[in-house]
Records
---
Amino acid sequence: MSNFSPSTYTNVWSKIAPATQELIKVKLFEVIYKETDLSMQRHIADTLGEVAGSIIATEPTSWPEFKKHVYTLFQDQNVSSNLAAFYILESFFTFCPEYFKEDSNDLYALFKNSFCHENEKLKLAALKSFSSYLEVL
């Protein structure tokens, strides 16, 4: 659960059938790549970060592919994929910042390189994600 979640928050993830849980996980990442409207992609990424954060915060081993999928977005040459990855992390960090602790050097390189990138939106997304990370440490 996020540090910012209301005290009335109820985790319903465990009540969803395992097959449906897996389908949701897969489909959320699939639509990130398919969505061409950047505003909608941002909303999907925020949702994905919140869903992943709440799941992993309560069941840390329940989504082992999450980290791999996020890094795949960063490796994509398409800036919109990189933006989506930062948007995901911005939301995710409010739930479970320690999940990427062992990847601190990789995160440092991603943030540093993005701060120097020519695309202003990418710089801003990196800064917001980094701020989200620092806010909960």
---
Amino acid sequence: MTKVKYKKTWGMIFMISSVALLFLHGLLYQLTGEIKLLHIIASVLIGIAGVLYYFRVYFKYDNHQIILYSPFGFVTRRYLFDKHTQLVLSGKKLYQMKGERKKRVWISKAMIDESEWKKFLHAFFGDDLSAELHDIN
């Protein structure tokens, strides 16, 4: 199975935000002498989320399935299909066709690097990535 990780930018944003919030809490402590435990816990949790987004797998795929993971590593969704023709690209959204119905495949282009997105699309659609040929509206 091919692994696709979260975009490292998201992890960095969360980690930098966590450090900034801890710094601001330190300033607040210097000015008022109060320790806000809830602020510290929230800052640490944001930092942990950043580390998870930085290192974890977003989804895995092969010829017959796509498996989505949460940042904590749990499987959140599994899309099974027999052939690539069951996957349809409409604009920037990916759908799985089940008969006449379409079901959204919840993969966000914003969550992965552009190069990974292109490799993923190439694996399923080849060089034919034009929206006109895959539009299902």
---
Amino acid sequence: MSLRETFTLPRILFFIVPLLFISACWGPAVCQYSHEKAVMKWPWVKGAIIEIHIKEERDDESFYFCGYIHYTYTVNKIKLKNNKYSPGQTVICKKKKNELKLFLKQFKLNQKISVFYNPKNPKKSYMHMPEGLSAAPY
């Protein structure tokens, strides 16, 4: 059997399509996990909340109320600002405005918070959510 007969298009596709499918499904999850694991080792500094506001957001099917928490922190004598509350999230959304207001009541202007930052790029940061708080949308 020649090499040309061994590697026919149907045989190649039979092996490549499942590999592409697995890569597409599992690749992002593996990358996200390794990123979150690395982020957990970032150093932290004290920061302060400087702004809290609610914005109405809409997509094709739903209407949400989203809360933004902006904060400042200082690394190497450089004052920085951000609004990420977790490694990949900058906003907290709820379907009911009252639920969002109730959640945001736990944060005050000038409140001191812990801010984790990337030592290689201190502009990348996120605030540590106080114990018992969950900002997951529902």
